[in-house]
From TrEMBL:
PROSITE patterns: SET. Pfam families: SET. Residues 138-160 are annotated as: Disordered. SMART domains: SET. Residues 40-461 form the SET domain. This is SET domain-containing protein. It comes from the Eukaryota. InterPro entries: ATXR2-like, SET_dom, SET_dom_sf.
């Protein structure tokens, strides 16, 4: 094949990956999801225009009823959050034990003598805007629940600087000999190691470890059983993502998931079982493997990302060029690690930039409440004598954590159905974590009675803002809201 033909073939592949699915293809895909049991009571419908598609109720929902509970397609815990929360890499459920969670936090804190985490520049740029699981009232509840008047129990909320752990308490953490009182009420699943032998990813069960391995991790694992061809380049890619933007970790999951799904589809057609990276993949197979991500609304990341407040409008183009350069370097490292000639369109900057842009426009901030906080709240609610007795052990650890005892798991994820839900400034649903929701699934509750046939909506922004503030915030999403409230207020 000549260079011209190869280039033309590559561009054709890119065009097909980035083409919007037809309404029929979209309807067929979401009907398959519904048949599989995802989103009972909901239906994705093609709307047309700038809205594209939306999610509609096919049954009535009562106020506070669960409208949607959905596992993520791809997602990652923020790298800056991993010290504070040891969770399953696949479902974000806390693992190990309370003692292990404390040891992870406090030994790192004592070793580095750093109480404040780095700023969130490398975290997803708009995480706090899209469906954050805790509103301001909940945030206040989480930080004011402790009984500050009872100073003897050792469980009151700290309003003072963190205190260094006494040597004996530090030794108990380091040796694994710490045994907290009443931990039988806070049992966590044991840590399950990665199938490929890497130390970076852990899981809450064999099922999660297997699911992650089959979905994307077998190509992104740095262990001895990894399918990655260049572990050094993969390590460099991960380090670069940690230092710049966590969103690159999720983009890599999409690329790896598409490759692995295509191999699996090809194996099913040929009747083989073992994964073969040498077998050719047809264009139709690659597009079928790409289908879950083809459905997401996309724009180029460097054109979509919101301009930071500290960047002058006159420097906007320079900022966007820098974002493009960062994405290009991230892609070059990923290509060195897992590039497959058959999937060359996936490794173009155009496709990679649109994948990241898809997250920029559709990602959902994930929050999972910490069992460490729940534990100290439990101790605080014990009868006075039992509380004082427990405080003899727990006080030094709470003092060492300070206000950070409330730190919880944070990450971002992309969901097949949740990402289809349109915005309204008077939404009828909200992303909200109930007490029993202890993993990274998207959970949406009805904010009022929803009738069959109504479109499900959430707010992408703070709906309590003024009309002009809402318009400015939504400009980052590339549309002007025309909900009834906005029309009335304008």
């Amino acid at each position: 094949m000549s260079f011209h033909d190869a280039h033309s073939s590559l561009q054709d592949g890119v065009h097909k990956l980035l083409s919007c699915p037809s309404p029929c293809a979209m309807q067929r895909y979401y009907e398959q999801l519904s048949t599989s049991g995802l989103g009972p009571g909901l239906q994705v419908r093609y709307i047309g225009g700038e809205m594209g598609k939306g999610v509609f109720a096919v049954k009535d929902f009562n106020e506070e009823e669960v409208v949607l509970q959905e596992p993520m397609l791809v997602g990652a815990q923020h790298s800056s959050n991993k010290v504070n929360a040891m969770v399953c890499s696949y479902c974000f459920r806390y693992v190990g034990s309370l003692e292990l969670q404390l040891a992870r936090r406090l030994l790192h804190q004592e070793g580095d003598s750093v109480g404040d985490e780095e700023g969130s520049e490398k975290d997803m740029d708009r995480d706090e805007d899209v469906g954050h699981y805790m509103d301001e009232e909940e945030e206040r509840d989480m930080t004011s629940h402790m009984d500050e008047d009872n100073e003897n129990c050792g469980c009151e909320r700290s309003t003072k600087p963190k205190k260094a752990l006494p040597p004996e308490a530090l030794a108990a953490l380091a040796s694994g000999g710490l045994q907290l009182p009443h931990v039988e009420h806070f049992v966590l699943p044991p840590v399950v190691k990665c199938k490929g032998g890497c130390s970076e990813d852990i899981y809450c069960s064999d099922a999660c470890a297997e699911a992650a391995w089959e979905a994307y991790h077998s190509l992104l694992c740095s262990g001895p059983l990894s399918l990655c061809k260049n572990i050094d380049a993969l390590s460099s890619f991960k380090q670069f993502a940690d230092e710049t933007n966590d969103i690159f970790h999720i983009a890599a999951q999409v690329v790896a998931a598409t490759i692995l799904r295509a191999w699996k589809l090809e194996n099913e057609k040929s009747g083989t079982v073992a994964i073969s990276s040498s077998r050719g993949i047809s264009e139709a197979t690659m597009l079928k493997a790409w289908e879950p991500f083809a459905m997401g609304y996309k724009q180029l990341w460097w054109q979509t990302v919101a301009l930071p407040a500290d960047v002058e409008p006159s420097n906007e183009q320079e900022f966007r060029n820098q974002m493009k350069e960062i994405a290009a370097h991230s892609l070059s490292l990923l290509k060195q690690a897992i590039y497959k000639e058959t999937f060359s369109p996936l490794f173009t900057l155009d496709v990679y930039g649109h994948i990241i842009g898809m997250f920029e426009l559709n990602n959902l901030e994930i929050v999972v409440a910490s069992p460490v906080e729940d534990y100290f709240l439990y101790i605080n609610d014990l009868p006075p004598e039992a509380k004082a007795q427990a405080g003899l052990v727990t006080k030094v650890y709470l003092d060492a954590l300070g206000d950070d005892y409330t730190a919880y798991c944070q990450g971002s994820a992309f969901f097949a159905l949740q990402s289809c839900i349109n915005h309204s400034c008077t939404p009828n649903a909200k992303a909200f974590k109930r007490d029993q929701d202890n993993d990274g699934q998207a959970v949406l509750l009805a904010t009022r009675h929803i009738r069959r046939g109504e479109e499900i909506t959430i707010s992408y922004i703070d709906e309590d803002s003024s009309l002009e503030e809402r318009k400015a915030a939504l400009a980052d999403y590339g549309f002007t809201c025309r909900c009834l409230r906005c029309l009335q207020e304008s």
